[in-house]
Amino acid sequence: MGNEPIRVLRIMGPVISGGVDIITMNYYRAIDKEKVQLDFIFDGYHKTSIDDEVKEMGGKIFKVEPYTSSMWKSMKQVYQIVKENDYQIVHSHMNALSVFPLCAAKLAGAKVRIASNHSTATKGETKKTVLKYMLRPFAKVFPTHFAACSKHAGHWLFGKEFCESGKVSFIKNAIDLKKYHFSEEVRTNVRAELDVRDKFVIGHAGRFAYQKNHKFLVEVFEEVVKVHPNSVLLLAGDGPLKPEIESLVKEKGLNDKVKFLGVRRDINRIMQAFDVFLFPSFYEGLGNVITEAQAVSTISIVSEGIPDEVRFTEYVVGMNLSQTAKEWAREVLKYKDNYMRRDTKQDMRNNGYDIDLAAEQLVDYYIELNKHLPNKELVKGEI
Questions:
Q1: Which of these, 319, 326, 334, 300, lies nearest to 200 by C-alpha position?
Q2: Which CATH superfamily is domain 6-174+354-371 in?
Q3: Which of 70-84, 169-183, 362-376 tops mean pLDDT?
Q4: What DSSP string runs through 18-30?
Q5: Under CATH, which architecture does the 184-346 domain have?
Q6: Domain span(s) for CATH 3.40.50.2000 in the chain
Q7: At what angle do helices 214-227 and 325-332 cross, to 10 degrees?
Q8: Which residues have CB under 8 Å from 26's CB, separation 6+?
Q9: Taking the model in full, what pTM does it have?
Q10: What share of the chain is helix, strand, coil (3-state, %, to 5)?
Q11: Which backbone phi and psi does 207 adopt, to 5 degrees?
């Protein structure tokens, strides 16, 4: 019994093949599973893109009712899973919504309940933003421990003073640096595969959702094409607003210059084909892809919605969304004649984004929490 790994239950919300899902899998692949094993609760009953890999690595997967259908039913299912499997460490990655599953986990007897935040909010997403602000005052009610991917995200949900008191652990969105490094050969091969060998390539990777501001991105590209017609825009990802953006591209007559790549598992290669990575998000908890772009030394032009913490090399250039598409295009075009790329591995490590080191720290974090588990109480609440 003593040789078994500590089992941590991670509550993930819906798996959307991006963001938190990718970061979680980066950590899961890298952690020492003889010391810590991760099990997962996913929102929804469908098979996800990571189910098989999780099971192959020894993890358990539980599917619950989508919270958008019935938060009450979802909470009851979380309660049952925690209770029946006697999970003592429950780690929720549902941002402001973590209040619900962590309430259920507390009633089911979980002694360590971690709330992680990866996001902030914007005025443009009215319903979602109102809900986040309504739930924010309850963010510290049910967790016993707190975490965030950045100070920016931590300050937003838990408060600046609370974060600076040392009560919030910062778990970086680390990546596998063995996969993310610039290679001229990879760049040449990918540009050939995508038939963009002789083009000025602007790229983006992200879910087609309001937050990512694809509409403005297309408007910037339209201005680039007016000055430099031999340009192409590569858009990786999927999401609810994809049809709308496809229509916008057609409306602007840019069909032959915009390629929709879908969800890619090789974004470490795709990014190397880009001359400029364009990222005009309204808000981000961190902006994982900016970390990845820096790892392959690709210039990223980003909005003020990207936290300063992720801007740690000369490959990140800041712009404001108050500036026009034409002004953004002018900045993009500065990089059309290539630029020097260097090895940024040490920068990544110095800033905590090496997954091998970060995974060791995460294992130590869970082990330390497990050491201090209080004695089990005989009676808990019920849902």
A1: 334
A2: Glycogen Phosphorylase B; (3.40.50.2000)
A3: 70-84
A4: STHHHHHHHHHHH
A5: 3-Layer(aba) Sandwich (3.40)
A6: 6-174+354-371, 184-346
A7: 60
A8: 173, 174, 175, 176, 355
A9: 0.84
A10: 45, 15, 40
A11: -65, 140
pLDDT of residue 1: 47
| 93/321 Cα distance (integer angstroms) | 28
CA dihedral 149, 155, 160, 165 (to 10 degrees): -30
Residues in the chain: 383
Q: pLDDT tens across 75-121, in order?
A: 999 999 999 999 999 999 988 899 999 999 999 999 999 999 887 76
Tokens of 292: 């990845």
- CA–CA distance, 104 with 123 (Å, rounded to integer): 30
Distance in angstroms (rounded) separating the CA atoms of residues 20 and 147: 13
Residue written as token pair 């080191």: 357
Distance CA(365)–CA(369), nearest Å, equals 6
Q: Is 214 exposed, middle or buried (0-12, 13-18, 19+ CB in 10 A)?
A: buried
Written as one letter, the residue type at 168 is V
Mean pLDDT of 248-274: 94
Reading the block at residue 63, the tokens are 């599917």
